[in-house]
Amino acid sequence: MLDVETERSVAAVRRFNRFYTRQIGALGEGHLATPFSLTEARVIYELAQRETATATELGQELGLDAGYLSRILRGFQERGLLDRRPSETDARQSRLSLTSEGRAAFAQLNATAHGDVAAMLDAVPLADRARLVAAMGTIEEVLGGRPEPREPYVLRGPRPGDLGWVVQSHGELYAREYGWNEEFEALVAEIVAAYVRDFRPGRERCWISERDGENVGSVFRRPRERPGRQAAPAAGGPPRPRGSGDPSPRLGGTNSLPPFSPWKASEIRSASEPWSNHT
Question: Looking at the DSSP assignment, which residues form a beta bridge with residue 203?
């Protein structure tokens, strides 16, 4: 007998499964209005990602029963979608690959799937879309899925809501790592507000670092000190891997910006006294 919390979790996962299988059209007789079932379409996808494969490799990748997979592959071969050749290294195995007809079938499936997902996302606001993609990444990570190769980080300009996130993430990060109090967060808010109010194109720039649709860092490039203002870190972000170096060469039109000089850890520690929590 499962405990109450586990029962609730099981019910929630099953509810999501019912919702999502309907959402992506997995319940129809033919996947994406094609002659292929969802499983057959997945096998075609895997074959299209490699030059050749064995049935054993496909079965391990997809977690399919060997007999069930064998029937699918035999059906593909009868329809002219699959080529089967003896393995040069193992006489017990055959090397499988899509024929030109098989690749044409994959191209249709791939284009239809891409269009359906794009149409679904078109109705989702940009901010919610980022949350959706991040949540899907979390599901894959927690359940042990192998992540797809992906671009490590994207550097872009700020969107609505990003500057408020900069203030919040700095407050959380520096409180945890250096013990700074809310006065530092207020200072960051002042710096961000001054950046927006006094923005000087060609001299100042803000970048948001994004990964899998989620903000993971920020850089504000400004003159290091201004009269009457306390210096503060020019770069920072939430508690995720943070790179170093000047981001401007990776973005066009920034060659006129002044030299980049982020604060070093020693400088941050020496400046921490005004905002430290005292016990």
Answer: none
Query: Cα separations (Å) of 213 from 140, 236, 239?
Result: 15, 18, 16
Count CB neighbours of 219 within 10 A.
22
Alpha helices (H) in 179-264, listed in sequence order: 182-197
* Nearest-angstrom CA–CA distance, 263 and 279: 27
Domain 4-123 in CATH 3.20.20.300? The answer is: no
Segments making up each domain of the chain, as ranges: 4-123, 155-275
Dist CA 142 CA 160 (whole Å): 30
Nearby residues of 172 by Cβ (< 8 Å), 6 or more positions away: 238, 239
From CA 98, how far away is CA 47, in angstroms rounded?
7
pTM of the entire structure? Answer: 0.56
275 touches 183 (CB < 8 A): yes
Angstrom distance (rounded) from CA 86 to CA 132: 44
pLDDT digit of tens for each residue in the chain (279 aa)? 678 999 999 999 999 999 999 998 888 888 888 899 999 999 999 999 999 999 999 999 999 999 999 999 999 999 999 999 998 888 788 999 999 999 999 999 999 999 999 999 999 988 788 889 888 888 888 888 665 555 667 888 898 889 999 999 888 888 888 888 889 899 989 989 988 998 888 888 888 988 767 788 888 887 665 544 444 444 455 444 444 444 444 444 444 444 444 554 454 555 555 555 544
Q: Which of 102, 101, 87, 89 is nearest to 54 (CA)?
A: 87
User: In this structure, are residues 41 and 28 in contact, taking their beta carbons and an 8 Å threshold?
Assistant: no
Residue that has been written with the tokens 């997945």 in this structure: 42
CB atoms within 10 A of CB 62: 13
Tokens of 95: 């090397």
Strand (E) or helix (H) holding 107: helix 100-122
